């Protein structure tokens, strides 16, 4: 941004953030956990729109943990470390950063690490304190905290009390609830009953809001973002009489007319309606005159 500002060049920035995932009690947990597992542990959690943490009612925690454990085994086998489909953390610096996020946390599943290969197993944390270190920065790794909330209202408040995320995921059979959560929160994008998939559609703009980014791109939106919308007005050299309104000398009648045309915002639609009204009155008078 500093380099762009020097030349007054506009920018679009996708900055990431902690993307929440709300799991409603009224949803298909098998499908929800399968999709969350895929989105969270893809590329070892190193995607900018991976579900960063789960919000759910306390009664759902153990079920979610169990179903994600089963899905991890389905995806990566009994020995995840040996799976050709499970990646590693990009470097030692980020490996140590992620490991530090586990300090003092209740590990319900996973937690195994290997510094020599930068391996961190798919990991789930339960009963996570919102003030914990793992909740203070984007994880960008295979750690999935579960933060218990009483209901959707508390989930909405929790999301709004933090920085605006790049993505927000909602799992529920209740479409009214999904719409409400979209309406009452702010995020770069939203996917209902899935994760990450809004990113794959070129018809949807992709980008952040607030601390998660500026601007949007993808498909035609990329063209629009990096294009200057130039305003052009081409006028005729005829009908100069109407321009006397803006030319000196000024008068009260010109001011009154200007107020009518500009301050009252008398648009074409209203003008057409007025003309139709006048024509209607004239027609009525002529018809009435014809009877006499």
Detailed description of the structure:
- With 292 residues, the chain is of the alpha/beta class.
- It has 9 helices and 11 strands.
- It has helices spanning 2-6, 29-41, 61-76, 92-100, 152-160, 175-183, 220-225, 252-263, 268-290; strands at residues 13-14, 20-23, 53-56, 107-109, 113-114, 119-120, 123-125, 143-148, 167-171, 189-192, 213-214.
- Helix 2 (29-41) crosses helix 3 (61-76).
- It starts with a helix and ends with a helix.
List keywords for this structure.
single chain; 292 residues; alpha/beta; seven-stranded mixed beta sheet; 9 helices
User: How are the strands of the largest sheet arranged?
Assistant: 4-7-8-3-2-9-10
Class computed from helices, strands and strand pairing: alpha/beta
- Biggest β-sheet strands, sense, barrel: 7 strands, mixed
The amount of helix comes to 25-40%
Question: Roughly what fraction of the amino acids lie in strands?
Answer: 5-15%
Give the ordered list of helices and strands: HEEHEHHEEEEEHEHEEHHH
Number of helices: 9
Distance between the termini: 79 Å
Number of beta strands: 11
Taken from the alpha-carbon principal axes, the silhouette is elongated
Poorly predicted segments: none
Q: Average pLDDT, to the nearest integer? A: 91
What is the radius of gyration computed over CA atoms, rounded to a whole number of angstroms? 30 Å
């Amino acid at each position: 941004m500093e380099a762009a500002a020097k030349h007054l060049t506009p920018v679009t920035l996708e900055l990431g953030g902690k993307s929440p995932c709300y799991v409603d009690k009224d949803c298909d947990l098998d499908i929800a956990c399968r999709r969350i597992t895929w989105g969270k542990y893809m590329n070892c959690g190193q995607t900018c729109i991976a579900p960063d943490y789960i919000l759910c009612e306390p009664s759902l925690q153990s079920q979610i943990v169990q179903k994600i454990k089963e899905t991890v085994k389905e995806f990566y086998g009994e020995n995840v470390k040996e799976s050709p489909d499970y990646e590693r953390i990009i470097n030692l610096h980020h490996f140590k950063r992620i490991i530090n996020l586990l300090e003092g946390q209740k590990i319900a599943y996973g937690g195994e690490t290997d510094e020599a290969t930068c391996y961190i197993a798919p990991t789930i944390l339960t009963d996570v304190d919102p003030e914990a270190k793992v909740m203070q920065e984007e994880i960008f790794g295979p750690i999935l905290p579960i933060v218990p909330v009483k209901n959707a209202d508390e989930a909405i408040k929790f999301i709004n009390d933090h920085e605006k995320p790049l993505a927000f995921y909602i799992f529920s059979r209740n479409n009214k609830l999904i719409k409400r959560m979209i309406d009452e929160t702010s995020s770069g994008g939203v996917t209902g009953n899935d994760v990450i998939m809004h990113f794959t559609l070129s018809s949807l703009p992709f980008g952040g809001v607030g601390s998660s980014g500026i601007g949007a791109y993808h498909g035609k939106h990329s063209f629009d973002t990096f294009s200057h919308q130039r305003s052009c007005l081409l006028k005729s050299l005829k009908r100069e009489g109407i321009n006397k309104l803006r030319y000196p000398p000024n008068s009260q009648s010109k001011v009154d007319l200007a107020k009518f045309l500009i301050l009252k915002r008398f648009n074409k639609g209203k003008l057409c309606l007025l003309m139709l009204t006048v024509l209607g009155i004239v027609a009525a008078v002529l018809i009435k005159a014809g009877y006499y």
